[in-house]
Amino acid sequence: MIHPTFEMMPAHAEPFEATAARLRACRLCRDAPLFGAPLPHEPRPVVQGSATARLLIASQAPGNRAHRSGIPFSDPSGRRLRAWLGLDEAAFYDSGRVAILPMGACFPGLDAKGGDRPPRRECAPTWRADLLAGLPRLDLILVIGQYAQAWHLGPRPGGLTETVARWRAILAASARPRVLPLPHPSWRNNGWLRTNPWFEAELLPVLRAEVAAAMAGAAE
Q1: TM segments (predicted)?
Q2: pTM for this predicted structure
């Protein structure tokens, strides 16, 4: 069974690097926004991947630090995420094994409270199918946060907590690549982690084992 996300992919995929190059030149949300006000700064799409990647990190959108550096998860959230996955920086940023595709490729700016805005709604419908088509060897997709979960898992009962709590059933589904839902590793979720201790006790050991298997497969 093919995962529903991949049913939308074009029959003849261009190489990931070619799609990523086109994406990096995109100014849709800045110059011709389809939803609301234009992006308030110069676009800087931040993605990572290659045709050999076995692990996909489907995230939300780059933060301000990633926007400035051009490196995904170059912030405290990235340190926590790498600890969750059991990967050091060298492995995490190895594009031959790990792809990183946020739902919105550019930093969306800050809201009135100083938090990141949601991913730009123009981005995923325009670019995601072509980017995924350039990742033919994926074994595992980690869907981080509600936006990635909605795209990759479709309609779900309940919110993020219920989705992540159903991780065993989601991981065991027959669809390929397999999918594992995660909360965002931001410090803003410290309260969520405290009130859901099963995440670190039960899910993280499985997550690390699955990531290690995917990384080993990419090295073959």
Answers
A1: none
A2: 0.92
